[in-house]
Design brief:
This protein has 394 residues and is α/β, with parallel strands linked by helices. The chain contains 13 helices and 17 strands. Among the domains are: 125 residues, 3-Layer(aba) Sandwich (Trna Endonuclease, Chain: A, domain 1); 112 residues, 3-Layer(aba) Sandwich (Trna Endonuclease, Chain: A, domain 1). It is elongated.
Length: 394
């Protein structure tokens, strides 16, 4: 049982064990797992500067998700991109982004991910390799702007072997979440005072109280307590959680990471306390399409750096329908048809491509193709969805 695994970590032993790559089983102790894997970089993302290496890394992640029972969209080659993969298993929807150096994540990119997760009702996960020049450690959950980050090896352990991460990175070091109720129970069972346990752990009585309230502790402290009590006190960490909305900067604040990047000045996505307002898209065709959808009763949100140009939602028959809309040429529609359909299926919604001219096909590989004139014929979301469903099966 994972619950009986000790979260005992000896960093010096771990460093000397870099080359040991034994398989992990849920019943192995956390000590053995950590000593064999902490400070081991894992196989992914080496040479990630090359596009081919990055594509192979994303494909490995995709294969891992598929083998774990997820339905996964194909990797795409849109650069720059807000996300790389979308995957679903039952009610769990994941948005995945791969990035070599997690410090390269700009606040605007993180905001796009957070807001996409809110739109889709998804959890966001980033897969990375380094923080600056320092390698990320397996078994540790990192965080940037509220987005959880794992190395590829940690994702493989979690999905393939059922071994969750137990550690998280925070300013000041690597920590573990304490099962406060269990710690209090074990202390009282052994008739230990707060002061006695504090002496064992090398912390204050007040700190022990904080641990019993569920606070986090440095791994060296957890090691001393677990060795003394002979029982595990650390909680596993769930990496698939929805990120919290990012606070908007106050007026006058500048985002140094986005200086000179006009795409990131306003992503058009509503955030708490920030009303949705029309966003110029740069082309009259896109603006006309989004205006038509809005006029039908769809709630339209313009997206940036996605395979689709807008996320729309509307209530039909007591349920919310999702519509992903892309706008462009018929040639581009032919290239993106399969990908858009896959993302729509993963999200349990529909996709639509609006083109110029008079296309000879009503759909491409199941992706409905409409002109602006055809789009205008629909009075409400129900009519449009009925037309889309007909074209999908054509």
């Amino acid at each position: 049982m994972l619950r009986t695994a000790f979260i005992v970590v000896r960093l010096t032993t771990a460093r000397s064990a870099r080359k040991r790559r034994s398989a992990v089983h849920p019943e192995q102790s956390f000590r053995r797992w950590a000593e064999g894997h902490l400070y081991t970089c894992g196989r992914g993302f080496l040479g990630m500067g090359a596009s081919g290496q990055r594509d192979r890394t994303i494909e490995r992640i995709r294969s891992l998700l598929e083998s774990s029972g997820f339905y996964v969209s194909d990797a795409h080659h849109i650069r720059p991109t807000a996300f790389d993969l979308m995957a679903r298993r039952d009610s769990l929807l994941l948005i995945i982004k791969a990035l070599k150096n997690i410090d390269a994540l700009a606040p605007s990119e993180a905001e796009r991910l957070v807001e996409l997760s809110a739109l889709f009702g998804a959890s966001v996960l980033m897969i990375g390799q380094t923080s600056g020049a320092s390698p990320l450690e397996p078994g540790v959950v990192y965080n940037r702007y509220g987005i959880p980050i794992l190395v590829e090896e940690s994702l493989r352990d979690y999905l393939g072997k059922g071994v969750p991460p137990f550690l998280f990175s925070s300013p000041g070091g690597i920590f573990a979440r304490i099962d406060g109720d269990r710690l209090r129970h074990l202390r009282l069972l052994r008739q230990l005072s707060l002061g006695a346990l504090a002496g064992v752990a090398g912390v204050s009585r007040r700190t022990i109280q904080l641990y019993e309230d569920g606070g986090g502790a440095e791994i060296s402290v957890v090691e001393r307590i677990e060795q003394y009590l002979g029982e595990p006190i650390a909680l596993p960490i769930e990496p698939f959680r929805a990120p919290r909305p990012m606070p908007r900067p106050t007026p006058g604040e500048e985002d140094e990471d986005d200086e000179g990047d006009s795409d990131d000045e306003d992503d058009g996505i509503p955030t708490p306390g920030r009303p949705r307002r029309p966003l110029p898209t740069g082309t009259s065709l896109r603006e006309n399409v989004f205006r038509e959808l809005d006029g039908m009763g769809w709630e339209v949100v313009v997206t940036v750096r996605c395979p689709f140009d807008a996320f729309s939602s509307g209530a039909l028959g007591g349920q919310e329908e999702i519509l992903l809309t892309a706008v462009g040429t018929l040639k581009t529609a032919q290239h993106r048809a399969d990908l858009l359909q896959q993302i729509a299926h993963v999200a349990e919604g529909h996709a639509l491509y609006v083109v110029t001219g008079s296309p000879s096909h009503r759909s491409i590989d199941g992706l409905p193709i409409l002109t602006v004139r055809e789009l205008r014929r629909h009075r409400d979301p129900a009519e449009l969805i009925a037309d889309i469903a007909e074209r999908e099966s054509a």
